[in-house]
C-alpha cells in the first residue's frame, strides 16, 4: 500500500477499492496501463465486504420487474421483510421512486435481462480465472445457490426456471427429498427449491477483494489509502485531490459504489443514485447443521451463507437515505426464521449495515461521462456488484484502451441519466 506520496502520476486512477474499483484497476493494468487505486479504507471493506458472497448466474431480473407491481400492496404496509421504505425519504425522492416503478413496466424486462446476462456471464468467467490467478481458489464454492420455498412454491420455481432458461441459464427444481439430499444437515423446512447450478459463492467477499488487490499490486499496480476530496480537470487529464496529496492522471474511473454521486456533483452531473440498504449478522455455526451453499429463503426474504466468520444472515431492502440511522427490524424478523433451519449458535461480532447503490432502472453506469474526456463511470451495481465487478472493470478498461468491450454495454451508458 502506497502511503501519502504527494504528486504521483498514472495513466489511470481508480477511485474506490471495492469489487468494482479493484476489478477496473486490475483489468486496466492487464492492458499495460499504469494504475493507482485509491480508497480511504483497506480494499473490500465496505459494501463489497458485507454482501452475501453469491456469484450469481441468475440475477438477470432486478427488483423492479412487473412482479414488483403485484407485490406492491404488501410492500406498502411497510411490514414486509423483503422491502421497507422511509416515508420522508420517499417523498423527498419521489422522482427516483417514480422512475424506479416505471422501469418495472413489462416492456423493460427483456432488454435489461439481456444486458445483465451479458455483464454477468462475462463477470463469472473473469471471477473464475482471477480467483485462481490470485491463489484464492480455496475461497470459491461451486455448489450453486438454492432458492427455497416453505409453502407451495412449485409454480413460482417452475416459472423462474423457465424464465432463466430463455437466457440459457440452468437451474433444477427440487422437491423436499431432493433438498434434503442436497443439504442433508438442515432441517427439512422447505417443500420446493430451485438450485441455480451455474452460480458459485465465496466464504469471505472482503477477503476476495483483498486477494484481487494483492494480485493488482503484484502486477505493478498501486493501492493508495487516502480520502478523496475532489476531481478537477487539468490539461488533457485530471487531478485527483486527496487528503494527503494529489495524483495526476489521464483517466479517472469513479467506482465509489454508494458514494459515487457526490464527487460528480461539482462537475455538473446530478446522478439519480439511491440506496437499497441491507444488513447482516454472523452466528456461530452448528457443526451438526453445516450449510453447503447459500440458501435464499423465498418466503422469509433472507439469505444465509456459510462464511469464514460463521453463518452470515443477510436481509432484504430498506429504501432510505444512505447514512440514516440503522433500523435492524428486518434483520430481527428474519434471524429466528434462519435459526429454525440451521439451529446456529450465538451472534459473532457486530451487526453490519451497507447500501446497494441503485439507479432507477437497476442497471449500473458503465462508460464515459458525457461531457468530460477521460472520466469513466463504474457504479450502481445494485444487488449484484460483487458478481459484476470484474465485467464492469473489464468493460471500462477496454473503453479506456479504445478496444471493444467483452459484452454489449449500450444499456449501461451513463448518458441515459446524465447529460
Ligand atoms: C446485504 C447485501 C447483500 C448483497 N449480496 C450480494 C451478493 O450476494 N452478490 C453480489 O454480487 N452482490 C451483493 N450485494 C451487492 C454488492 O455488495 C454491491 O453491489 C457491491 O459491493 C458494490 O461494490 P462497489 O465496488 O461498487 O462499492 P463498495 O464496495 O462500497 O466500494 C466503494 C469504495 O469507495 C470508497 N470510498 C467512498 N468514498 C470515498 C472517498 N471520498 N475517499 C476514498 N474512498 C472512498 C469506500 O471506502 C469503498 O471501499 C449485496 C449488498 C448488500 C448490501
Automatic annotation (TrEMBL):
GO cellular component, one term: cytoplasm
Pfam annotation, one family: DAO
Molecular functions per Gene Ontology: oxidoreductase activity
Domain FAD dependent oxidoreductase: residue ranges: 11-399
Record-linked SUPFAM superfamilies: FAD/NAD(P)-binding domain
Keyword line: Oxidoreductase
InterPro entries: FAD-dep_OxRdtase, FAD/NAD-bd_sf
The protein, known as: Amino acid dehydrogenase
Amino acid at each position: 500500500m502506497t502511503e501519502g506520496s504527494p504528486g504521483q502520476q498514472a495513466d489511470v486512477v481508480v477511485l474506490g477499492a471495492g469489487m468494482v474499483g479493484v476489478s477496473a484497476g486490475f483489468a486496466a493494468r492487464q492492458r499495460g496501463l499504469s494504475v493507482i487505486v485509491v480508497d480511504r479504507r483497506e480494499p473490500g471493506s465496505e459494501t463489497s465486504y458485507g454482501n452475501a458472497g453469491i456469484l450469481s448466474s441468475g440475477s438477470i431480473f432486478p427488483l423492479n420487474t412487473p412482479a414488483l407491481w403485484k407485490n406492491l400492496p404488501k410492500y406498502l404496509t411497510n411490514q414486509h421483510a423483503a422491502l421497507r421504505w422511509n416515508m420522508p425519504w420517499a417523498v423527498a425522492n419521489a422522482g427516483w421512486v417514480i422512475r424506479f416503478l416505471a422501469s418495472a413496466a413489462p416492456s423493460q424486462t427483456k432488454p435489461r435481462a439481456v444486458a445483465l446476462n451479458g455483464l454477468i456471464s462475462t463477470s463469472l468467467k473473469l471471477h473464475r480465472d482471477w480467483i485462481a490467478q490470485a491463489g484464492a481458489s480455496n475461497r470459491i464454492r461451486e455448489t450453486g445457490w438454492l432458492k427455497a420455498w416453505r409453502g407451495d412454491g412449485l409454480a413460482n420455481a417452475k416459472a423462474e426456471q423457465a424464465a432463466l432458461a430463455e437466457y440459457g441459464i440452468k437451474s433444477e427444481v427440487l422437491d423436499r427429498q431432493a433438498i434434503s439430499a442436497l443439504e442433508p444437515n438442515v432441517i427439512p423446512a422447505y417443500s420446493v427449491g430451485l438450485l441455480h447450478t451455474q452460480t458459485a459463492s465465496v466464504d469471505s467477499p472482503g477477503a476476495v477483494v483483498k486477494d484481487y488487490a494483492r494480485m493488482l499490486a503484484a502486477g505493478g499496480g498501486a493501492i493508495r489509502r487516502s480520502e478523496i476530496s475532489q476531481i478537477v480537470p487539468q490539461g488533457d487529464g485530471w487531478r485527483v485531490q486527496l487528503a494527503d496529496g494529489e495524483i495526476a492522471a489521464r483517466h479517472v474511473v469513479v467506482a465509489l459504489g454508494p458514494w459515487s454521486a457526490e464527487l460528480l456533483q461539482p462537475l455538473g452531473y446530478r446522478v439519480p443514485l439511491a440506496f437499497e440498504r441491507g444488513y447482516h449478522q454472523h452466528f456461530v455455526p452448528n457443526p451438526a447443521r453445516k450449510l453447503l451453499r447459500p440458501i435464499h429463503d423465498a418466503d422469509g426474504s433472507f439469505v444465509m451463507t456459510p462464511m469464514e466468520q460463521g453463518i452470515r444472515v443477510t436481509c432484504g431492502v430498506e429504501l432510505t437515505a444512505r447514512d440514516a440511522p440503522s433500523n435492524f427490524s428486518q434483520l430481527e424478523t428474519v434471524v429466528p426464521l434462519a435459526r429454525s433451519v440451521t439451529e446456529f449458535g450465538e451472534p459473532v461480532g457486530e451487526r453490519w449495515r451497507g447500501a446497494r447503490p441503485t439507479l432507477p432502472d437497476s442497471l449500473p453506469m458503465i462508460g464515459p461521462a458525457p461531457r468530460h474526456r477521460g472520466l469513466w463511470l463504474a457504479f450502481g451495481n445494485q444487488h449484484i456488484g460483487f458478481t459484476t465487478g470484474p465485467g464492469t472493470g473489464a468493460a471500462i478498461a477496454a473503453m479506456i484502451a479504445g478496444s471493444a468491450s467483452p459484452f454489449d454495454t449500450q444499456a449501461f451508458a451513463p448518458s441515459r441519466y446524465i447529460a
